[in-house]
Amino acid sequence: MAFGKTAGRLMTAGALWGASWGLLWGSDVRFKVRHDHLRKGCDGTMTVTGDGIAFSGAKKHAWTWKYQDIQELKVAPDGIYVLTYQDRRLRLGADRAYRFESDVPRELFPAWAAKLDQRFVAELAEKTDGWTLPVKHLRRVKGSEGTLTFGSGRIVYATDDQDDSRTWRYQDIETVSSSGPFQLTITTFERARSHYGDRKGFNFQLKQALSEARYNQLWLDIEKTNGRIQR
């Protein structure tokens, strides 16, 4: 997705994460989007309700998804990625996905976060209080540099690089692991597109040491939140 985010926009959108989402569904939300596909794409309208999402565009480019039929909804301030459960006939094991470019209404972020639990992926860095480490996110081709902030019940990765910022609630994290004080891996429930149903891991090189005590407490808090260890 061609998002081209800036840190300022990310912080503004992320500040709405904790807003009261229930007030939104008194009326539908409609906004213009561009559907990204092989033949140049097409313009259309996206309608968001309390039950699902609909897109109406050019001929034969119209779909409606109930939230229960969305496997993953990945959202940034200027784009949306919808992963469905529909099979792609020519790609065994892959599910059909749709990409839309748009200035996404900011009030939708907290609404979708509450509605879609782990199926919601926030490609934005929420402004949060906590302790922060400067890091490098190691990727297959080119990494990104930024900060990891460990707040109450969430971890935030903030970077200027396109598509790479994230806000994870503890329930969005499958596990954390570390091979030493200068390395941390966060394995999430986000889908890795190149491996179909695989979970996505974020491997960070830390520019400052992560103490054993802080790592142990982080691991314990995540395990407790996800019900694997009794409180």
Question: Which helices and strands appear, and what pairs or packs with what?
Answer:
Layout: H1 7-14, E1 29-36, E2 42-48, E3 52-56, E4 62-66, E5 70-76, E6 79-87, E7 95-101, H2 108-115, E8 120-122, E9 131-138, E10 144-151, E11 154-159, E12 166-169, E13 173-180, E14 183-191, E15 199-206, H3 212-225
Parallel strand pairs: 5-8
Antiparallel strand pairs: 1-2, 1-7, 2-3, 3-4, 5-6, 6-7, 9-10, 9-15, 10-11, 11-12, 13-14, 14-15
Your description of this structure?
This protein is mainly beta. Helix content is 13%, strand content 44%. The chain contains three helices and 15 strands. The strands form two sheets. An eight-stranded mixed β-sheet has the order 4-3-2-1-7-6-5-8, covered by helices on one side. Strands 12-11-10-9-15-14-13 form a seven-stranded antiparallel β-sheet. β13 (173-180) and β14 (183-191) form a beta hairpin. It is elongated and about 55 Å long. The protein starts with 6 loop residues before the first helix and ends in a 6-residue tail after the last helix. The relative contact order is 0.14.
SSE succession:
HEEEEEEEHEEEEEEEEH
**What order do the strands of the largest sheet run in, or round the barrel if closed?**
4-3-2-1-7-6-5-8
Weakly predicted, low-confidence segments: 1-23
Mean pLDDT, all residues: 83
* Percentage of residues in strands: 35-45%
Tally of helical runs: 3
Distance between the termini: 40 Å
Main β-sheet description: 8 strands, mixed
Shape: elongated
Helix content: 10-25%
Rg over C-alpha atoms, rounded to the nearest angstrom: 18 Å
Q: Please tally the β strands and state the result.
A: 15
